[in-house]
Amino acid sequence: MPLKKNCTIQDIANELGVSKSLVSFVLNGKSKEKRISDEMSRKVMEVAKRMNYKPNYLAKSLRTGKSHTIALIIADISNPFFARFARFLELEASKYNYKVIFANSDEKKEKFGSELAVLRNRQVDGFILIPPIGSEDELLNLKKQKVPYVIVDRIFSSVDSYAVIVDNYRAGYEATKRLIQNNCKKIAILNVNDKLVTMRERVNGYLDALRHHNIQVDESLIKQLKFSHEKKSVMKAIDEVIEAGTDGMFFTTSKLTILGIECLRDRGISIPEQVAVISFDDLDAFKVTFTPISAVVQPVEQMSKRAIQLLIREIEGLSNDSSDKKNVFEVDFVFRESCL
User: Fold this and answer.
1) Is the peptide bond before 55 cis (omega within 30 degrees of 0)?
2) Whose CA is closest to 171, among 278, 275, 304?
């Protein structure tokens, strides 16, 4: 039995008795530009749907040199921030008629490199990247080969590229300041991936807030954890800061916060009666936990919009203002019962 032939633009044109170019203009969203009536556009779309027309993106990319796809490589798909960012990015890209292909590096530079290679072979037009530690060579290679890309949530001092981040220092400073205003004197910070500039900035903000309020820095209250976020290692850190007398905790990721709250409950520590808590990054779940959690709020939607704007301009060969290389967004704060 012969294979069923895929519907083509010519098939739709024959069905309607119109030109192939007219059908092409409608399917590519150029009806108004080419002054094609709404009635005719509607008929073309109806026939295309009835005949199960599927565009040949490979053929189109060969003709135009563009696939109208971009790739997003996320550092950790289990991190709620990255999942939300991916959703907003997909919505924003669709406004420019771009599709998004997703990949996950698990914060491993080797996997990041292999995902880059695979996606480049897929002929994507550009990348939105959340690179793991040690990715500088891969990023410099992309730049050398003039592949459009924008970094999000990370910056690398040796890589001169467009980046979209938040003011991590201010987030760390203001979160710690809030804990101090709640009469906390032994404030602990649980951090992860401290080799990343952005994560170090959260800690630097914490340290300066303590110093500016004449609170001595206690190294036993500063915990640097590995990316794995294993509950066992988080529990060990929680036990150590409890033993050191902590009365306030700042978790530098929402994923750490979730594990930290679980560990505190396992130890019978009540929030905020025994320890106040603030999370970097907010989750819907924080509103409805037994004790609602205070949090730093990142402008995820605005960040995704800016990342897409920068990338599209790069893809289209339009120059971005050099002053836009480092796009820093201000964070907001929501204070709930865990640290009013």
Assistant:
1) no
2) 278
Over residues 282-314, the pLDDT tens digits come to 998 898 888 999 999 999 999 999 999 999 988
Identify residue 161 by its one-letter amino acid code: S
Contacts 24+ apart (CB under 8 A), 238-244: 238/190, 238/263, 238/264, 238/267, 239/267, 241/188, 241/190, 242/267, 242/269, 242/275, 244/186, 244/188, 244/218, 244/220
Q: What is the pTM of this model?
A: 0.80
Residue in the block written with tokens 């779309």: 45
Residues 190, 199 contacting (CB under 8 angstroms) = no
Quick: pLDDT tens for 147-165.
Answer: 999 999 999 988 989 999 9
